[in-house]
Amino acid sequence: MRIIVCTDGSDTSRRAVKRAAQINDFVPEAEITLVFVHEYSQNPPRYGHIARDGVRKPPEGLPSDIDEIYIQQGEEVLEEAIKILKEEGCTCSTRLLHGEPAQAIIAYAKEKECDLLILGSKGRRTIQKIMTGSVSSAVVPKAHCDVLVVK
To answer: Tell me, what's the pLDDT at 60?
Structure first.
């Protein structure tokens, strides 16, 4: 059985990781993959200072490429989820995806012939994204496999 657990560091995604560990107790041969989706931002967060030339500069010590910062955050979220699974005696692999979250999750699950997708009902999204719907509400009707949405 192939299980993909989507995580973004939110409380509900942490609960989704814990639910995967519970399922693994009953299906110990399950292959668990933790997935974080890095959504490229057209409106990166404001940070740093404005230089004399009017160009916004990142604070010293941070990468100048905003996507690099988001990738680093994704790796940190995945490390936290790995820790949760290890504490429960589970092993897993990880994958950092790029793109619109629901589309990336659906495509990856199909590519990997996933049997079960597990994700939280609410994640860390901006107000604009909340208005257009949650990732889970977009994934459920389009996924080729079963989807467990954790509250």
So the answer is: 53
